[in-house]
């Protein structure tokens, strides 16, 4: 093994061990997210409901990925020795990732609906419909990637999809379903949310000025509180989207490149193989895992979230 290959392998092992610790902390963060967003002040928002759903799914993903990462530290990975684990390994990871990302997209849509000043638009999402959507999303994602376990098998002590056509399809499918489709939707609805908040802020003020002084004070307090909470939820969502896009955009790009290079190039040097293996780890494991572990840190920017979190901590300590 050359020095480059050895250094990259050692670096990957170190980052894997560090990532396991960080993901464990991320699980605690997601648990706190659920507790805070289920509190009365924030639970009224549909956006909070999908934040909770995303946190639960991300927690399951982090637990599952910790198992995969611990397994990868061994010289003989389980997916390369056990056919059942080989077929389920990528499939379950794909289902959990797809479910979590879908909840994030629907959170954008729900925040847009919730921020609208039109009653008809706000009535599009009811509590029963929200719960049905949350239950339906993972079922859909169990069906969409069903081709993964069908075409995955162990070949030369490596778990992979055997068909070149399926591998190429999988690469472009991941690029479309996890980048081309969700990113524009997230950005578009984030812009719409911002516009709704600006419009509502301009419209409510003239109405309040016509009220008597006591009524004006009450309405100002209610409107300002509602607007501030709604605005902070939207800000948290926007920043989470920016972090998500920044950390996950390289995965589909590298996957397509890696698939095309494996088809067009027959012979690669050991250093080239080691570099591509390390880049695959960074884009498909390390950065994606971080995107699922950092939402708690993103939510800490919100004054309302920090205030509710402090109440939870004080109530627990007392």
Automatic annotation (TrEMBL):
Entry keyword Cytoplasm: no
GO molecular function annotation: G protein-coupled receptor activity
Compartments where found: Membrane
Transmembrane segments: 14-38, 50-70, 90-113, 133-151, 171-194, 237-258, 278-301
Record keywords, A-Z: G-protein coupled receptor, Membrane, Receptor, Transducer, Transmembrane, Transmembrane helix
InterPro entries hit by this protein: GPCR_Rhodpsn_7TM
Keyword Transmembrane helix: yes
Membrane-related topology note: Multi-pass membrane protein
A GO CC annotation given for this chain: plasma membrane
All residue ranges annotated as the G-protein coupled receptors family 1 profile domain in the record: 29-299
PROSITE patterns registered for this protein in UniProt: G_PROTEIN_RECEP_F1_2
Name of the featured protein: G-protein coupled receptors family 1 profile domain-containing protein
Protein's organism: Adineta ricciae
